[in-house]
Design a protein that fits this description.
This protein is α+β, with helices and mostly antiparallel strands. It has helices spanning 7-15, 32-48, 144-162, 190-193, 240-250, 290-311, 328-331, 336-347, 362-368, 392-412, and strands at residues 51-55, 62-66, 77-82, 96-98, 107-108, 116-117, 133-135, 171-176, 197-203, 209-210, 215-224, 266-274, 278-287, 316-324, 375-377, 389-391. The two termini are 33 Å apart. The chain binds zinc ion (ZN).
Length: 413
């Protein structure tokens, strides 16, 4: 019998439920179906035997508590994951199970074989020889991001309840909506949650441990032109589309996503439209280094200021909004939360894979709310699309990590 008997069945049950979040919504959660799912989680968490199970009303996160079973003073540890799925078809998800994968065959997702998982295209498949993979049927994403995290945290809590000989402090769990649209953590209620340190269980392959993310801002440029007949345009016309192109050309050409990696930041033009009369540019600005990040924003604003000066009027209007910051700034003040994860990996003989994330996690925001929250692997590969898959073995290992962290925190207290 599997060590965590409900881990995979619960995961399969959850992925079949459509929980796609909606980037165009302003409600919390972004879709009524997410509230329905949250209510289902409440039932399941109560059935496991957790305490204090409730939906936090400002965030729609489902919170629950596993009471301590030790007399020692132990830091309260939180485990967080999200149950919404990315902006990709999620109607009628049919998970497929590939038992004892050989690490080299091409896996047909749909019967016709239109979509396949091919190790030549996805070389990470080679890491899964001898394991059981769960894939989509090619028409949808799978939703391992992040229902694997949800199922793992729940399985770990169930395991701790069934094994009272494993001593642990109080554990808080938080399962939330709307991570994929970037707003879920905005309303995270640190006080109601009640943990001293926390982890999101929302990373990729075995061993991932992330505590460094981008600093991130969104930047919009609105450009106002002067439209006159081209025949009589000399000295009069200001072509907003041309101004937009000039603005873009003034940004450093190398600093684009397609030219950068590792700790290199960028300006990413993700949308543009324009006529002679008006134009609009949408960017995101990213950098791991806070100072360089601030300099990037200054440069962006400075180019617009200079152009306005040259025009003698405010043709370009820039709006920059910070989105999240590099959690390392918070976490490096006290590395306990990272060291504890590393110790757990070591105890389980899992090699840590530590890289700066070229993106953010819910923990990027939650860390700045005062709760240091690095990210642990949950197992998913090729997230956000039809080629998403996860192995049962990695999900078991991720569950082991949650149990081990709870156990070590008590032992080290
Ligand atoms: Zn995720």
């Amino acid at each position: 019998m599997a060590k965590y008997e409900n881990l995979i069945p619960r995961f399969l049950k959850y992925v079949k439920i459509n929980t796609r979040s909606n980037p165009n919504s302003t409600t919390i959660p972004s879709e009524p179906r997410l509230m329905d799912f949250a209510k289902g989680l409440v039932k399941d968490l109560k059935a496991i035997g957790l305490d204090n199970v409730h939906i936090n009303d400002q965030s729609a996160y489902v919170y629950a508590t596993l009471p301590a079973n030790t007399t020692k003073q132990v830091q309260k540890i939180g485990f967080i994951s999200h149950f919404d799925t990315a902006d990709f078809n999620s109607e009628n998800i049919q998970p497929q199970i590939v038992e004892d994968y050989d690490g080299k065959s091409v896996i047909k997702l749909d019967d016709a074989g239109k979509f396949t998982l091919d190790p030549a295209v996805f070389p990470n498949l080679k890491n899964y020889a001898g394991q059981t993979l769960i894939t989509s049927d090619g028409s949808t994403l799978l939703g391992a991001d992040d229902k694997s995290g949800v199922a793992e945290i729940m399985a770990a809590m169930e395991y701790l309840l069934a094994h009272p000989e494993i001593k642990h402090g109080e554990i808080e769990i938080g399962l939330g909506p709307d991570e994929e649209i970037g707003s879920g953590a905005d309303h995270f209620d640190v006080k109601d949650f009640g943990a001293d340190i926390a982890y999101t269980v929302d990373g990729g392959p075995l061993g991932q441990l992330e505590y460094e993310t981008f600093n991130a801002a969104d930047a919009q440029v609105e450009i106002t032109g002067t439209n006159v007949h081209p025949a009589e345009a000399k000295g009069v016309m200001v072509n907003a589309s041309q101004v937009a192109m000039d603005f873009h050309a003034a940004l450093p050409a190398h600093d684009r996503p397609e030219n950068t990696e590792g700790r290199e930041g960028f300006f990413h033009l993700y949308s543009m439209n324009g006529t002679v009369d008006s134009a609009h540019l949408g960017y995101i600005i990213r950098d791991h280094d806070r100072e360089i990040f601030e300099d990037r924003k200054k440069l962006f604003q400075g180019i617009a200021d200079q152009m306005n000066k040259d025009f003698g009027s405010d043709r370009l209007k820039v709006t920059i909004k910070d989105q999240y910051y590099n959690m390392r700034e918070v976490i490096e003040k006290d590395m306990t939360v990272v060291d504890l994860a590393k110790d757990a990996f070591a105890a389980l003989d899992i090699k840590p894979l530590i890289f700066p994330v070229r993106g953010g996690t819910d923990g990027s925001k939650i860390s700045f709310m005062g709760l240091p929250t690095p990210n642990l692997f949950a197992g998913g590969e090729n997230m956000h699309g039809r080629f998403e898959y996860v192995s049962e073995e990695t999900m078991e290992r991720a569950t082991d990590v949650v149990v081990e962290i709870a156990k070590l925190a008590e032992a080290q207290a």
